[in-house]
Write a structure and sequence with these properties.
The protein has 225 residues and is mainly alpha-helical. It folds into 2 domains: 177 residues, no CATH class; 33 residues. Helix content is 54%, strand content 6%. The chain has 7 helices and 4 strands, in the order H-H-H-H-E-E-H-E-E-H-H. It has a two-stranded antiparallel ribbon with strand order 1-2. A two-stranded antiparallel ribbon has the order 3-4.
């Protein structure tokens, strides 16, 4: 276990959710920024991105929704499934960003959000891993619901693993008592806090220096002579 009692994969997901929650939407992203987010999703260890059966189940769901019937055997080969898994981050990125913005951004801004779990997320399965960690997964294999389920598990952690930078609107996963999202924001906050006090100090300091430069008053005996 690591930061906030999370596994390394869960920490990576939390950082991903924080970055997505910081974005108003995805329309302003440059191509390289979008590709970086897609790579981060692929590296987060989501079961539906590596589980062969989960991917097949999702493909079947998509085909049934489109009225195409079950997936034919020729489309169930390892190569076909791997190719589809490579496109899944594109499929879920937009929905993931909206959900992260709503849940994390809403909690940080208002202190509360309303949620309504769909029928597909009414049940879950607990899994005990060899390293002693317990993972909860939704029974549904649809990656859209799996993402929402994982995101909601993350925001329900106590203490809340997200914070909004007081200098800029960036949402981040703090380390211990970290208050700012970056050293640059911490430096700006420190400079802003010191400016009024430093100006007052410099005024007092210069006044003292000017007073020290004045010649001392003449002695009374020197005036009489």
């Amino acid at each position: 276990m690591t930061l906030w009692g999370m596994t390394p994969d869960q920490v990576r997901r939390a950082h991903l959710y924080a970055r997505l929650a910081s974005l108003p939407d995805l329309s302003g992203l440059k191509t390289w920024e979008a590709l970086k987010l897609l790579t981060e999703i692929a590296d987060c260890g989501y079961p539906w991105l590596a589980d062969h059966e989960a991917t097949l189940a999702h493909l079947d769901t998509l085909r049934l929704e489109a009225g195409l019937g079950p997936l034919p055997p020729a489309e169930k080969t390892a190569e076909k499934v791997k190719a589809f898994q490579a496109t899944l981050p594109y499929v879920v990125l937009h929905q993931l960003q909206q959900a992260a913005r709503t849940l994390i951004g809403g909690l940080l801004a208002e202190g509360q959000v309303e949620t309504r779990a769909p029928q597909a997320l009414q049940g879950s399965t607990l899994m005990l891993h060899p390293d002693g960690t317990v993972e909860e997964r939704p029974k549904t294999l649809d990656p859209h619901y799996a993402l929402q389920f994982d995101l909601e598990l993350c925001v329900r952690r106590s203490p809340f693993p997200f914070r909004c930078c007081p200098v800029c609107p960036t949402i981040f996963v703090p380390i211990k008592r970290q208050k700012y999202c970056s050293p640059a924001c911490a430096a700006r906050a420190l400079a802003a806090a010191r400016t009024p006090a430093r100006r007052a100090y410099m005024r007092q300091y210069m006044a003292q220096r000017r007073g020290a430069r004045k010649p001392p008053p003449a002695r009374p005996d020197a005036v009489r002579g």
